[in-house]
Each structure stands twice: as C-alpha cells, then as structure tokens.
C-alpha cells in the first residue's frame, strides 16, 4: 500500500463515519480507565449497562476498596471474566492511592504499570482522557487494518499499531482509531461484513474472496455510502 491508497481509504472511512467516538460512557479519566478495563472481551453496550449503576456506587478509588471483593464481583458479574477484572480493579485502585495520589497518571509508561491496563487500554486513556494522539488496536482495528492492507495477516497487535502510525498523520491517530472501530463494528463485521455495499471492496483482501462467488455487484458511490 502506498500513501495515496492509504489516504483514499482513510478519507472514505471518514466520510462513512464522520462522528465516530468513544462509546464507553464516562465522565473522567478514572471512570474511562475502569470502563476500558471492563471492556476486554465484552461489548461496549454491556459495559455501559453495568457502569450506569457502578459509577453511581463507586466514584473514587477508595470506594472500590471499602467493599469485599465478592461484592464488587456481584456488581460486575454481567461482564465477561468478572472475577479477574474485579481483582484487577481493586489492585489498580490500591496502586493509584499508593503511588499516584488517587489520580490516573498521564504518562503511558505509568499507565501500563496499573493492574489490568495493557497497551491498548493505556492508548485509549491517553487519547480520550488526556488528548494525546494514539492508536489503540482492538479486535475491530486489527481486523480492518489487515483486511484493507494496512498490515499483514500474521502481524502482531503491536506491529499493526506501528504500521498504522506510519500511514496515518499523527494528528489523525485518535480519530482514525474511532473510525476504524466504527467501520469494523457496524460495517466490516467479523462474520457478516457488508461487502456488497462496501466502497472499499477493491482494497479488501477478505472482500475479494467473499465476492468471488457473487455474480454481479452494483457499484456504490462515495456519496451514498457517506449517508449510511
């Protein structure tokens, strides 16, 4: 892929999802960190249902530590891997109070030291809470990047991130992250991608394979897709 092709793909996706944004409900960096931690192997929709009451009950790190672990587990039991996540939340809160005055650190290297916080979570927090450009690679971003040729099929998550950072202007990293998620979540789905409606079919490895058995396909204009 050359830079011209990358720019074309990014512009098409921007037209399709101009208002892409973080769909995890939160009101501060601490809530966002907890929400992203909970979102691993779980939908944002389910996380938002849980945090609607969770964030009413727990507002500060101290609040998560004054209840028994079993109580916190029950509060988030609708979330996948809830037992492990409950342990990580309490350990994270203890570390925040011990080393960071109860505040979420703004440095990437300090964020990834928090229990349950990996590189993806740290990138989401850095970009959405603190305005630092970053590309967080979740399952949607990884899938779309590989299908559209930004990365190779065997690339690791870190390799996908590095290749996207090279192709995407730094000032567009955060917004591109959100747009790729929306594109993967609502259009280029894992099992049922909308290949027959996709304006990027000619650039998509998966789409070309899927459409080989389709006899005809009407071209979809950029303008029509943008309104979808």
UniProtKB/TrEMBL annotation:
One of the record's GO molecular function terms: DNA binding
EC primary class: lyase
Record field: compositional bias (Basic residues): 219-228
Cofactor dependence: [4Fe-4S] cluster
Annotated binding of [4Fe-4S] cluster, by residue: 188, 195, 198, 204
Organism superkingdom: Bacteria
Enzyme Commission code: 4.2.99.18
UniProt KW keywords: 4Fe-4S, DNA damage, DNA repair, DNA-binding, Endonuclease, Glycosidase, Hydrolase, Iron, Iron-sulfur, Lyase, Metal-binding, Nuclease
Pfam family, one: HhH-GPD
Chain residue ranges for the region called Disordered: 208-228
InterPro entries in the record: DNA_glycosylase, Endonuclease-III-like_CS2, Endonuclease3_FeS-loop_motif, HhH-GPD_domain, HhH_base_excis_C, HhH_motif, Nth
Gene3D superfamilies in the record: Helix-hairpin-Helix base-excision DNA repair enzymes (C-terminal), Hypothetical protein, domain 2
GO biological process terms held by the UniProt record: base-excision repair, AP site formation
Co-factor binding comment: Binds 1 [4Fe-4S] cluster.
Domain HhH-GPD: 38-186
Catalytic activity: 2'-deoxyribonucleotide-(2'-deoxyribose 5'-phosphate)-2'-deoxyribonucleotide-DNA = a 3'-end 2'-deoxyribonucleotide-(2,3-dehydro-2,3-deoxyribose 5'-phosphate)-DNA + a 5'-end 5'-phospho-2'-deoxyribonucleoside-DNA + H(+)
PANTHER family hit by this protein: A/G-SPECIFIC ADENINE GLYCOSYLASE/ENDONUCLEASE III, ENDONUCLEASE III
Record family assignment: Belongs to the Nth/MutY family.
Function summary: DNA repair enzyme that has both DNA N-glycosylase activity and AP-lyase activity. The DNA N-glycosylase activity releases various damaged pyrimidines from DNA by cleaving the N-glycosidic bond, leaving an AP (apurinic/apyrimidinic) site. The AP-lyase activity cleaves the phosphodiester bond 3' to the AP site by a beta-elimination, leaving a 3'-terminal unsaturated sugar and a product with a terminal 5'-phosphate.
Protein name from the UniProt record: Endonuclease III
Organism: Paenibacillus cremeus
């Amino acid at each position: 892929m050359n830079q011209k092709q990358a720019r074309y793909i990014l512009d098409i996706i921007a037209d399709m999802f101009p208002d892409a944004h973080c769909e995890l409900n939160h009101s501060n960096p601490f809530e966002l960190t907890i929400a992203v931690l909970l979102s691993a192997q779980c939908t944002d929709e389910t996380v938002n249902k849980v945090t609607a009451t969770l964030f009413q009950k727990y507002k500060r790190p101290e609040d998560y530590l004054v209840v028994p672990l079993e109580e916190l587990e029950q509060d988030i039991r609708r979330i996948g891997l809830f037992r492990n996540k409950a342990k990580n939340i309490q350990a994270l809160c203890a570390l925040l109070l011990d080393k960071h005055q109860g505040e979420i650190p703004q440095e990437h290297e300090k964020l990834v030291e928090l229990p349950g916080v990996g590189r993806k979570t740290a990138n989401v927090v850095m970009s959405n809470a603190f305005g630092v450009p970053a590309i967080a690679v979740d399952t949607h971003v990884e899938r779309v990047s590989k299908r559209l040729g930004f990365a190779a099929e065997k690339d690791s998550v870190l390799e996908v991130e590095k290749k996207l950072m090279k192709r995407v202007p730094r000032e567009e990293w955060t917004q591109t992250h959100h747009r790729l998620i929306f594109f993967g979540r609502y259009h280029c789905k894992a099992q049922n991608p909308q290949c027959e409606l996709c304006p990027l079919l000619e650039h998509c490895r998966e789409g070309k394979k899927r459409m080989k058995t389709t006899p005809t396909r009407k071209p979809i204009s950029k303008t029509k897709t943008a309104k979808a």
